[in-house]
Amino acid sequence: MRGVLVRAGGSLARSLDRAGVIAEHRLRPTLSLAWPRVLTGVALMSKQTADVAMVGLVLGPPAIAGLAFAYAFWGIVTFLAIGLAGGTIALVSQHYGAERFDRAELAVKASLVLSVAISIPLSAAYVVGAASLIGLLSSDPAAIGYGTAYLAVLAPAAVFEFLNMIVSRTYAAIGDTYTPMIVRVAGGLLNITLNAIFIFGLEMGVVGAALGTGISLAAVTVAFAWGIVGNRYPVIDRPPLPVPVTRSRPHVEGPLTRQLLSISLPLMGRRAAETALIFPLLAIAGTFGTSVVAALEIGRRVRGLIDSLSWGFSIAASTLVGQTLGREDEAEAEAYGREILRFSLSCYVLLAVCVIALANPIAGVFTDDPETLSLAMVFVAVGAVSVLGLGLDGSVTGALRGAGDTRFPFLATVVGMYLVALPVAYAGTLGLGLGVAALYVAMVAETVVPALLNYYRFGTGKWKSVSRGYRETPGD
């Protein structure tokens, strides 16, 4: 059986090479990095998807709407962490590729310090102000109650979310996506198991969903703490981390920390802009009723699960482009960027077609309310179309991130989401006959417009000159 799979894989690799999608010698390192990250993405995205499905079936559309409001605020935590981790992978991969291991370690240390400094105040704000924050998005008492309970209980886990993201990206930066996959998948399975126990067994509702997620995040943090200091995992067939965090000084270096911030802040701004868009979108959806809010959230959850592919291809692009630039081979870095883009987009098209064909049964997993179900079917299909933009954007921004070029993607996000998608969505409330259909168009525009702008940026080649500045150590 193994021989059959190997031959089939070799045949597919040669076919992709002949078709001009991706060269065979670049496909192998791409897949070795991507497939563990795809599974990691599935594990992470499935947690909130499972929350929505379980809570929705037990408590109905108001609970789904409440989770949507809470996820909007929790998304700020997640995406700020991803933005900071993007700076981590850019610096660590380039310094690791140049065999400057001491500077790679310093980048990790700086990232961990910044994670704690950012996450603790954010966590405290959510614990204290959960009710007031959720109340900004809805006037439905039931939805507000569900959202407040979820956010307040989960808020202390914000610190774990940040730390987990940094360690996971550190492993990816040195070319090991297998180790974090094992840890993340185990955490995802624990999360879903705990959710089922708390929601169905103990009938704890949204509080049980939040507890399951928080406990699993804490467990993943403990597991990552073992590896980040250089210990080898006894059940994972991988060497220990080659750039472990040690007690050696310096713990923080000013110039390198400023480099980290110069890369991370635009990424964090971009992610914050992506997250912030959901607030006005939920408010607009709320004008059409709770069922529309619930259906929109279902569509977004399914889209997020499909976009797990981007976890793999984006990280592969960042790591391979960053490491290749570290070896001063800009032509090879560009080839990796272009070919990973073509390969990932092909995969997205196939998956989107399958989801569109199965939109009805997929929506039925989350709700049995007839009105919500009919709306959710459309949002699931539209989400599958819009994920093509995420596929293009994930790979191309991954390549730009590997070079340290993060400012342009931030601007592209602002343009696509706030100058195009949001005005389109708002038009649905103006009595022009668009109605909910305006949300469908906005859902596509928010992904496609930034993707096209970032693709243009990659084509200019300016990211190469940006990278040269980060490859120099202060004093060189």
Summing up helix and strand content along with how strands pair, one would put the structural category as mainly alpha
Low-pLDDT residue intervals, each spanning 5 or more residues = 1-6
Average pLDDT score: 82
Structural shape: globular
N-to-C SSE series?
HHHHHHHHHHHHHHHHHH
Radius of gyration: 22 Å
State the share of residues found in helices, binned by percent.
Answer: over 70%
Q: Would you count the extended β strands for me?
A: 0
- Tell me the distance between the termini: 54 Å
Q: Count of helical segments? A: 18
Biggest sheet overview? none
> Which percent band covers the strand fraction?
under 5%
What order do the helices and strands come in, and which of them pair?
Blueprint: H1 2-18, H2 24-59, H3 61-97, H4 101-135, H5 141-154, H6 158-173, H7 178-201, H8 205-228, H9 254-276, H10 278-286, H11 290-306, H12 308-326, H13 330-357, H14 359-364, H15 370-403, H16 407-427, H17 437-460, H18 462-470
Write a compact overview of the structure shown.
The protein has helices at 2-18, 24-59, 61-97, 101-135, 141-154, 158-173, 178-201, 205-228, 254-276, 278-286, 290-306, 308-326, 330-357, 359-364, 370-403, 407-427, 437-460, 462-470. With 476 residues, it is mainly alpha-helical. The N and C termini lie far apart (54 Å).
